[in-house]
Design brief:
Blueprint (H helix, E strand, L loop, with lengths): L14 H6 L2 E5 L4 E13 L12 H14 L2 E2 L10 E8 L6 E11 L2
Antiparallel strand pairs: 1-2, 2-3, 2-5, 4-5
């Protein structure tokens, strides 16, 4: 288990760990980003959590409502459905066949 990519995401299923870990850092060749973590869920690999194309800010706001309503844990942050970029990190989970633990965060460029 310790050699799997993203295995540390499983720790976010613990409420104390989720509450104590509000941010992460993402490094790319072009920029550094803060990830403002606001949700964790256990979901199938075919879940709408992985949806990333929306026809309007209203549809994206509905998507955020779905995340809030189905997440194990949710933290209220002010996500702009019309402009903020989100990241979904995912790893295999073991609650049911094809389960995934997903972490949802707002992406904020810091460098």
């Amino acid at each position: 288990d310790s050699d799997q990519m993203f295995t540390q995401l499983l720790r976010f299923k613990d409420s104390g760990f989720f509450n104590d870990n509000r941010t992460a850092t993402l490094y790319t060749p072009d920029a550094t980003y803060a990830l403002e973590i606001f949700a964790v869920a256990v979901t199938p690999s075919t879940s709408d959590y992985y949806k990333y194309i929306f026809s309007s800010p209203t549809e994206r706001a509905q998507h955020l409502d779905m995340i809030r309503d189905t997440a194990l844990y949710w933290r209220d942050i002010d996500v702009d459905p019309g402009g903020d970029r989100l990241v979904v990190l995912s790893t295999c989970s073991f609650e049911h066949e094809d389960a995934r633990t997903v972490l949802v965060a707002r992406l904020v460029e810091i460098q």
